[in-house]
Amino acid sequence: MEVASPVALIADRKAAYLAVLAGAGAPLDRLAHSSEVEIEAVAHAFKSLASQADTILKQAGAIVGCIEKEGMGSVLGGVQSLCLTVKDFLGRRLEAATTILGTLQEEEKLVRQLMPVTRSQEAIARHLSALSVLTNVEVAHLGGSGSNFQRLAQELASFSKLLTQQTLDLARDTERRQQTIAETRNELACNLPRLRGEMTSMEEDMGKTLRVIEEELSEQAEVPGQFRQCAEHTAQQIAGVVAAIQAHDITRQQMAHVQQSLCLIASKISAADSLHGDDLAAAHAGLKIQILQLKTIRETVVNWTSQIRRCMENIQQLSASGVAGIGPTVLRQEQALSAELAHIEILQQKSQEYSGRMQATLGGLSSLAELVTTHLQRGQLIRNRLQVLMLNALVEAQRLGERGAVVSAIARLIKEVSEDWNTVGKRSRSALTEILGQVEHTNALMEVFSEASCQKLRADQSETTAALDKVRRAAAFVADEAAQMQAITQSMQAHLAEVAATGNRLELCFGHLDTAMGQAEGLAREWENDAIAVGPRDTAEVERWLSSLYTTEIERAVMQAALHGTAMPVVEHSFAGNAVELF
User: Fold this and answer.
1) Contact residues for 115 (Cβ-Cβ < 8 A; gap 6+)
2) pLDDT digits over 67-96, tens only?
3) Angle at the Cα of 88 from the Cα atoms of 82 and 93, rounded to 5 degrees
4) How many CA atoms lie within 13 A of 165 on its CB side?
């Protein structure tokens, strides 16, 4: 068998080495051509996701600011203040009304005391009417000699009619006022317990409503902030992916530099005269550098493809449904508070109705007091006129002498009527004094029903209404923004399947790196096992030989680690840029 010459063996071995080097460069060529379309698709997709994430963050920030500025928390304080004001307001009115109820009972008794007075006055009026008739009869009996007494008869008849009318007026008004007081008293006695029960029930219902809302608020308060944090984290991851993809230009350069370096190594092998010279030692060193370069590229690619998967998982979990539920919940809470406030308004109106009824009753009682006062003033005039009539009758009786016996009797009867009138007047003045005292006391109690007493309540109601208006606007704003956010997150999630498919294809493309790296590592092991190549005596020459290809800091650092044993550069995970291009 013919044995090959040493030169032929060297040529065969060199040819085999060159074939392996060419085989290592071929996957890099395929990678360069196949990955561009997928990388461009991923870049476009994540730029779109970044824009959507930025929109969500702006809307989430607006929602958080809106809720912090016009949240239900501030309204609850106002509602609680209003509840306390209403409780105090209605409580004071109820107590005043209860006291007035007792006062009305006393006033009703006093008005009833006027009834016998009016009946006495009616008797006096009838007596005077009878005297008037008697006087007219006597005038007719006396004939011409009783002309002076005739004027007295006429005056007594006129006075009798006036007194009868005044007495009827007083009797009718007294009876009417007594009936009004009785109706008011009965109404208060019937409704005050119910009003007090409604107020107590209102306090309990309001307390329950506020507690429920406070519990819901505590749960909702953190939702917008949590969503914003989640969205911020997702946006950072999206930005990291975008930055990493943008930095792929440098990775592409690194792969191109590896291909160029493999060509230089092939040229070194082609120029070598033996399998143990400095050229093959330098080629071996260069091959080790390229293996490390490929590992660094692979680590970078693995990091940002993993980043893509993690980012998609976060996007899949990103949901604005919790925020979207805040608007309807807040509106429901506002409606619950508004319903409670409407209940307060109803109780206030009822209280005001009772107030109007009591004021009308007290106004009628004051009118009765004024009527009695006027009647007493007129009573003084009546006493004076009775005195005058009595004196005139006595004078006329004395003038007539024996024929004036009847006139003298009439004078005595007028005197008796005057005395009876004085007695009735005293009783009227006594009743009037007590009525006026009760009216004054009741008027003091009625101050709690005055317009001034409603000012604090109205101020709190106005403040609470304004706050609830702001809450409604805020809830509507949150609902609108959250709906848009939810639509955006759903749109982002709808494209994840497409992005995932692109990412899978991209990972398959980068599988060529493993092929190239495996062939290079196999060749390096073969050289080392056969002791064909040993470390170069001049590392500076190898560095000079390859450094012209390396335009990034990471490539220079990898070369230094391979030649001088320094630490390998750490691939950054922030993806703000995985290397700095030098030139």
Assistant:
1) 171, 174, 175, 178
2) 766 666 667 777 777 777 777 777 777 777
3) 125
4) 7
* pLDDT tens, residue by residue, 406-445: 777 777 877 777 777 788 777 777 777 777 777 777 777 6
DSSP letter at 146 equals G
**Distance between CA atoms of 122 and 171, rounded to whole angstroms?**
9
In 3D, which of 425, 400, 395 has the Cα closest to residue 411? 395
* Boundaries of every domain in the chain: 6-68+225-326+480-564
Nearest to 66 by CA among 413, 510, 498, 478: 478
pLDDT at 275: 66
pLDDT at 382: 72
Tell me the residue length of the chain: 583
**227 exposure class (CB count in 10 Å sphere: 0-12, 13-18, 19+):** buried
> Counting beta carbons within 10 angstroms of the beta carbon of residue 158, is it exposed (0 to 12), middle (13 to 18) or buried (19 or more)?
exposed
Contacts of 450 (CB under 8 A, 6+ apart): none
Three-state secondary-structure class, residue 581: strand
C-alpha span between 319 and 307 (Å, rounded): 20
pLDDT, residue 3, reads 44
- Please report, rounded to a whole number, the percentage of residues in the chain having pLDDT higher than 70: 84
